[in-house]
Amino acid sequence: MQLSSLQALNAARAKRQAAILITDLADAHDRVVVEGDAVEGALGAEIEQRFRSGKSGAVEIDGRPLFLNVHLPPPRIVVIGAVHISQALYPMAAIAGYDMTIIDPRTAFATPERFSGVELIADWPEDVLSSGPLDRYSALVAVTHDPKIDDFPIAAALRAGCFYVGALGSRKTHAKRVERLMAQGFSEAEIARISAPVGIDIGAATPAEIAVATLADVIQAFRRRSLSVAGGESA
After folding, report:
1. Which residue in 10, 106, 137, 184 is deepest, having the highest Cβ count within 10 Å?
2. pLDDT band with cut points at 50, 70 and 90 for residue 61
3. 23-31 own/partner pairs: CB under 8 Å, 24+ apart
4. Would you say residue 168 lies in a domain?
5. Position 173 in a domain
C-alpha cells in the first residue's frame, strides 16, 4: 500500500468516514475513494454497491482487475430511553452487528440490572452528545415519550445527518413534535426524515415486536442510505 493511501485511510477512520482502497492487481497501484467522492461509470456503480453492502472483493472494470477493500465505520444505534423496547432491542442489535448506546437521565430506568452488557448512560442527552456527537453512521431512536428528553437528540440527529432518525409516539404526538421542530427552523423535508411512529409497520403491539420493527427499519435505512455528503456527490 502506498503511504498516501495509508494516510488517507487513517484520516477517514479518524473522522468516521467510509473509504475504499482500490488496488489495481495488474500493477499494484492503489488509491483511496472516500464516501461522497464523485466516481463515474462502471467503477462508480461498483463503488456505490460496495459502500452499501460493506463487502470487499475483486472485480474487473474496463478490462482491469481491481480489488476493492471496503472500510466502513462501525454503525451504531443511540437509543434515548431505557424502556422495555430498549431492553428487547439491544441484544438483537448486537446480533445484527450494531454497537448500541442507551441514554436516559431517569436513574430509576437506567440501571445496570435492567441493561446488563450494553453501554448505558444515566445523563441528559444534550450533555452526553456534546462529548460523543452523532454522525452519518449513527441511528437515533427516541422512545421516552417525553419531549424534554427526546427533542434535543432528535434535532441533533437531523443536523448531524444520521442515517436513521426514529421516534416513538402516536400521530398526534408526532404532529406536536413537528410543530416544535419547525419552530426551531427545520424544514418539512428535514422533518420528513423522521420515522414516526418508529419502525416498519408490521402491526407491532408488544415492546419486543416494536424492537423488531425498529431494527428492521434501521437496517433498511442503513443499506439504502444516501452516499452524498456535503462538498461531494453520490458515487
Report:
1. 137
2. very high
3. 23/66, 23/67, 23/69, 24/64, 24/65, 24/66, 25/58, 25/65, 25/66, 25/67, 26/64, 26/65, 29/2, 30/1, 30/2, 30/5, 31/5
4. yes
5. yes
119 and 155 in a single domain? The answer is yes
Q: Give the end of a domain, one of 43, 71, 99.
A: 71
Please report which residue ranges of the chain form alpha helices under DSSP H: 3-14, 41-53, 84-95, 125-131, 147-160, 171-183, 188-191, 207-223
In this predicted structure, what is the pLDDT of residue 36? 84
Summarised one tens digit per residue, pLDDT across range 149-174 is 999 999 999 999 999 999 998 889 99
Owning domain of residue 35? 3-71
Contact predicate 104/122, CB 8 Å:
yes
What CA–CA distance (Å, rounded) separates 27 from 8?
20
Task: Give the lowest-confidence range in 9-18, 74-83, 181-190.
Answer: 9-18
Residue 9 CA to residue 71 CA, distance in Å, equals: 8
Q: Which of 56, 71, 86 is the last residue of a domain?
A: 71
- Number of other CB atoms surrounding residue 148 within 10 Å: 9
Does some domain include residue 231? Answer: no
Residue by residue, DSSP assigns 136-197 as TTEEEEE-SS-HHHHHHHHHHHHHHT-SEEEE-S-HHHHHHHHHHHHHTT--HHHHTTEESS
What are the backbone angles phi and psi of residue 185, rounded to the nearest 5°? 100, 5
Residue type, 170: S
The total number of residues shown for the chain amounts to: 235
- pLDDT band of residue 132 (cuts 50, 70, 90) is confident
pLDDT > 60? residue 45: yes
